[in-house]
Design brief:
Elements lengths: L1 E4 L2 H7 L5 E3 L7 H11 L19 E5 L2 E2 L11 H4 L5 E5 L5
Parallel strand pairs: 1-5
Antiparallel strand pairs: 1-2, 3-4, 3-5
């Protein structure tokens, strides 16, 4: 099981409390994880990735194992600790402004 931590506003939208646990078939990549997340919670489609391009939204960041994975290739394998469920995959709403 892969553990995913969503920001509060996306937890509210998906109507979940705490972490989300997902099964990902095949290689555990950002794309596979986000595909599984959007399949299980269709109301999240378009909130994390653009509908058309499937690119990460500008003010959304991905973290795991104390690393910023936001600019990693979508098909790059996620760390083993995420794939085994030992560490969560965090989706974070970035802050902007001055």
């Amino acid at each position: 099981m892969i553990r995913v931590v969503l920001p509060a506003h996306l937890r509210t939208l998906a109507r979940v409390d705490g972490e989300v646990k997902l099964e990902v078939m095949g290689a555990v990549t950002q794309r596979a994880l986000l595909d599984a997340l959007e399949a299980r919670y269709p109301m999240l489609r378009g909130t994390i990735r653009d509908h058309m391009t499937q690119n990460r939204r500008p003010f959304v960041r991905f973290f795991a194992c104390e690393q910023d994975l936001s600019h990693e290739a979508p098909d790059a394998p996620l760390p083993d600790a995420v794939a085994t469920g030992a560490e969560p995959f965090l989706i974070v709403g970035a802050m902007a402004g001055g």
